[in-house]
Design a protein that fits this description.
This protein has 143 residues and is of the alpha+beta class. The protein has a single domain (3-124), classed as Aminopeptidase, CATH 3.40.630. 31% of the residues lie in helices and 22% in strands. It contains four helices and five strands; from the N terminus they run βααβββαβα. It has helices at 13-22, 35-44, 87-101, 116-124, and strands spanning 3-6, 49-54, 57-66, 71-78, 107-109. A five-stranded mixed sheet has the order 1-2-3-4-5. A hairpin with a 4-residue loop joins β3 (57-66) and β4 (71-78). The chain is globular and about 40 Å long. It starts with a strand and ends in a 19-residue tail after the last helix.
């Protein structure tokens, strides 16, 4: 298996949503995750979007954001048929390198409480559970 990594194109929007859906990740295709919003993110910070490909098929995706102080890993997803092959680990490593290149010394990930597999995965990569309770206030349910 030969896996390549690159920034996805907006033409792959449906495949990105498929991977998120398959992984059980929350997303808002009628809100913050509209095709137009993701197109804008890909244009403004393409280095924050990293996808894994076997041939031309996207088999994994992760994207990052930052809050000016730390880098955030968002929605890591790997196709079920490609899990346990190091693709997720490599996607995280590549995004961490982007954060390092921008001068961030802390990177973080939020994990839904009903996703213990993700907790174990990130703990194996050296992330620590800091037991923070997360609160949010939203303009609407779509964001």
């Amino acid at each position: 298996m030969s896996i390549r990594f690159r920034t996805p194109s907006i033409e792959e929007y449906d495949r990105i949503l498929e991977l998120w859906e398959e992984a059980g990740l929350p997303y808002k295709p009628e809100g913050r995750d509209t095709q137009e919003n993701i197109k804008q993110e890909l244009k403004e910070q393409p280095e924050y979007w990293i996808a894994a490909y076997e041939e031309e098929r996207m088999v994994g995706i992760v994207f990052g954001t930052d809050d000016g102080r730390k880098g955030w890993l968002n929605r890591l997803a790997v196709d079920e048929d490609y899990r346990e092959e190091g693709i997720g680990k490599e996607l995280v490593k590549r995004l961490e390198n982007v954060f390092k290149s921008k001068g961030f010394k802390i990177w973080a990930v939020l994990i839904e409480p009903d996703n213990p597999e993700a907790m174990v995965f990130f703990e194996h990569l050296g992330f620590e559970d800091v037991d923070i309770k997360y609160y949010s206030k939203r303009e609407s349910e779509k964001v």
